[in-house]
Amino acid sequence: MKSSVQVLFVLLVSQLFTWGCSQGNQGAQPGAVKTDSDRASTANQDNRFYVVSNKQAANSVVGWRQNEGGEFELFGEFRTGGQGTGPYEVPDLKRDLNHPLANGDDPLISANALMASDDGRYAAVVNPGDGTVSLMGIAADGTMAPLSIAKASDRFPLSLDVHGDMVAVASLGMDNGKGSIALYRIFDNTLLPVAGSRRDLMARPSTIGFSADGEHVIVNELVTGKIKVYAVAGGTLSGEPTAEIDSPREADDRFQAIPVGWVSRDDGEQEIILMSEARFLTPDFKLREGNGEVVQAPAFSWQTGSVSSYSLSDDGRRLQLISADVLTGDEVEGGELANCWVALSADGNTLFAVNALSSSLSSFSVGESGAVQLKELLAFKDDSEERFLSDITLNHDGTLLYQLVGNQGQVIIFDVSGDGELKMRQVVSGLPEYGSYGLLSN
Question: Which InterPro entries would you find in this protein's record (predicted)?
């Protein structure tokens, strides 16, 4: 992207775009499908899930567990040792309840802000308030306790992933044109920065994750729409990306793709990457005026969101587009809006997409090759369109789906049938009304 266009975009985002789409863990995939939930399995296999409160004075992780009657109950709040930003969105940290782009429902615009280790002993969480990352110990009963805290590579840590004893973190600088990634290592219950591993993106990252084999790190960029791959070798990151690709825009009048959450499926010789795409910005990186079409943001209007899929070669040197700009609707205008998070079914064949501004979930079929096709436009829909649906995850066997509501301090729990149909089971409270992020399931 040319520097002049990038500067224009940065200025626009800094003033108007901090509300966008936040972080969301991608769901419970056993076997070859790589997500936080299967990595968070513990000896105690009762259904539990966790959300980060983002409290300013003392950030915390809030946990719910399923009781014998099948209902979920809040069972604990566990301080991280770091600080959150409360109802303020990074990087501006300004709030205007009457302005939908600064109302606090989406503090990070990322996914994977709360992740667990492969063995379920640890959870890692970002603390955007004081620019730190916390390592939490997870007990057999699901309770957590802070073990260690480390400084992020930039001012606002947004997203992380854990593979073995390695932790990858993506952070935002003081404005939307700055950002970096870095590695950390878990040793003796301590989170240690890997010296010399910081890589400057010169752009705002969104979501970071390891490849299934842990030999590569994948990160997408909110500002540029690029997806980049770095090798993990010799305990550090390659100096430059081993592969990168731009998000697709299929026509000249198609809005820019804003990639946020993604999930991957390991198919052996290649890894399939399934990417959410919110279509907020016009081709010239502006916001389009609206006439009340969007309940949560009546002053603006957007094009239909989308999903794209990619294949990553085993050596991490080839990132290839499979399906481009598959709509959350029938047309580029008038469909479901702001697909910012995705979650994959237990068998890896159904992708759930969160349409934040339409208060809905869409489902997609994922073929053997990684090709994506719309399956059910409205797997769930709140007709009021007042709920800002944000982070999403599935439980360990894919039979329950958890959906964070970023502007109501709630989590909606769905039963998931074998063919991917959703049925609302319960709505739980216990979070601040605005500002919470992250979802982790055991």
Answer: WD40/YVTN_repeat-like_dom_sf
